[in-house]
Amino acid sequence: MSDHNSHTTELEDPGTLNDVAGSLTNTAMIVGIVGMLLAGIIAMSTGNWRQFFFSYLHNFTFVLSVTIGALFFVLIQHLTRSGWSVVVRRIVELMTTGFVPLAVLFLPILFLVLVGNNSLFHWNSPEVVESNPLIKHKAIYLNATWFAIRAFAYFAFWIICSRFYLNVSTQQDESGDPDLSLRMERWSALSIIVLALSLTFAAVDWIMSLDPEWFSTIIGVYFFSNAVVSFFAVLAILIYYFNSRGVLCKTINAEHRHDVGKLLFGFNCFWAYIAFSQYLLYWYANIPEETVWYARRQENGWGVVAMMLILGHFVIPFLGLMSRTVKRKAKQLLFWAVFLLVMCWIDLFWLIMPEVSPQGPAIGLIDIGCLLGIVGLFSFGVLKIAGDHHLIAKRDPRLPESLAFHNI
């Protein structure tokens, strides 16, 4: 709840993203290039290109999940006419510009599919399709042409939607027109429905179809829950970074950190609920073609990763983030944000990598190189695209409410 009678904090001018993080642009580019070169050289020297492709996909979906979570946050704030979040919303809007570099980073995956390579997706081989009646039955959906068309549709919506909200929000910085807020609100309901559909089908295409014989009606919600936890973890980290640089210290305070922490805690519980729900249904039905997916993730060391997720992704952070004090203290919230971000990466690792390494989990230099490469190139793209934008929606009509926000 917000207290409208609270004293309104004087608004500071934090400047643009380039003013705060512009020096990181070249560093991000160098890290990205070096990371991809490292992974590529190791894959070339060992001939283990399939491991490279899976690691690339794993880290791509990890970064994509953060960006999808950011777009969801922007839409839900407008849909609910939220006031508390105005001071952090511009940071999130700038995060959504990452869909453009992500579209570029998706091109290698798309190229593999279009040239008929089935290193990632078994269903992309005509021989496999003909020899497997179940995959042949799904071929009307799982084929290279429709895969490419759907991917184009996903990125087209994500980019257009994110640019719309950023552009209208920055227009309001100049005009202060409250009708622009109403314009963004009017489109938020439809946009969030399309976002839900697009991220669900993307999860089916890029994660579930890695094992084309397996199916899950909850995979989209599972991916969404991971995405939102990843996003709130990154948002908490960015707030700490900006405050540590002396930026937005008077604008984003313990009250806003408290709400970010509550949402991080709440959606992490939601992730646990969805993960358990999916497992329980498969365990109860005990149908061989369904349980084989979980069997692969409970054998040869993968069961250790599953237990790590149960403890590290739910039990430990549940206890650690429950306290009100932890959510309000910058360094303590930072610790749990980093901790959960690592767990979200491991969760996607557990979802994707057993398809290429059923003999057991192993994180090598290819994985580290792909992580550095994709995160670096993604960050470079965001800084280049969003660098000239201000870090706060300075003429949003709900800004005074956000500045005076107080948790009860």
Q: Could you give the count of β-strands?
A: 0
Overall 3D shape: globular
Largest sheet: none
> Helix amount, in percent?
over 70%
Task: Identify low-pLDDT runs.
Answer: 1-9
Provide the gyration radius in Å: 22 Å
The number of helical runs is: 17
The end-to-end distance, rounded to whole angstroms, is 7 Å
Summarize the helix and strand pattern as letters: HHHHHHHHHHHHHHHHH
Structural class: mainly alpha
| Proportion of residues in β-strands | under 5%
Quote the average pLDDT.
94
Question: How would you portray this structure in words?
Answer:
- The protein is an all-alpha fold and 408 residues long.
- It has one domain.
- The chain contains 17 helices and no strands.
- The chain has helices at residues 17-21, 24-46, 49-79, 86-95, 99-114, 126-131, 133-137, 144-175, 179-206, 219-244, 254-285, 288-296, 302-321, 324-328, 330-352, 365-386, 399-403.
- The relative contact order is 0.20.
